[in-house]
Amino acid sequence: MQGWIRANKGFLLFLTLFGIFRTAVADWNPIPSSSMHPNLLEGDVVLVNRLAYNVKLPLTDIVLGHTGEPQRGDIVTFSSPQDGTRLIKRLIALPGDRVEMRDEQLIINGQPASYATLGDGSETVGAAGSLRTIQLRETMAAGTAAAHTIQLLPQVNARRNFAPVTVPPGQYLMLGDNRDNSADSRYIGMVPRALLIGRAVRVLASADIQGNWHPRTERFGMDLYGAR
């Protein structure tokens, strides 16, 4: 074994440094579900800046210091406070924000978001089959975040309302852009800062995993905030 290690020490060093880089500096995250439609698709692989918010001890989730403040509208990867699963959602509310939802409309600190209809479509949802979708341009109150596209599924039984809640210190409220088909803070609760992994920046590569794995080259390198 010692001889093998000596013969392969260069490769082992590479693997160690690669692991440190992925857990401390930058990472990539495959998109496994439809919870961020229409902005992220199954088969997308997104680049995640792990230094956007925290510096962590390599190969651990121990936070050594803060490097930046999460902002409303950021697309964030984090560990679920419910079971530790890695998730990717949009950050909607910051510590101290008072937020509620009424018939899909967000209200943050008393200021309602506005919505512009972009169009209709369809999406296959499990055993329910093909369902109607509505895409909207969501603009949160002035000064809170830039606009982004969301999707609704009117035929799905979803949590379209929740009573006013104040986000606790050091925690964040996350929602999927596919509002009626997302396991987000409405179901798993607020997300503590220590569980934030990083800020998703752009799509590195994409393939149609539900079809023939054909590369979606038009999505390669796509800025996740360019359409704001």
From TrEMBL:
Active site: S35, K89
MF GO annotations: serine-type endopeptidase activity; signal peptidase activity
Superkingdom in the source lineage: Bacteria
Compartment(s) of residence: Membrane
PROSITE patterns, per database record: SPASE_I_2 (PS00760), SPASE_I_3 (PS00761)
Gene3D superfamilies, A to Z: Umud Fragment, subunit A
GO CC terms: membrane
InterPro entries hit by this protein: LexA/Signal_pep-like_sf, Pept_S26A_signal_pept_1, Pept_S26A_signal_pept_1_CS, Pept_S26A_signal_pept_1_Lys-AS, Peptidase_S26
Chief subcellular location: membrane
Reactions accelerated catalytically: Cleavage of hydrophobic, N-terminal signal or leader sequences from secreted and periplasmic proteins
EC category: hydrolase
Keywords annotated in UniProt: Hydrolase, Protease
UniProt xrefs under Pfam families: Peptidase_S26
Keyword Hydrolase: yes
Name of the featured protein: Signal peptidase I
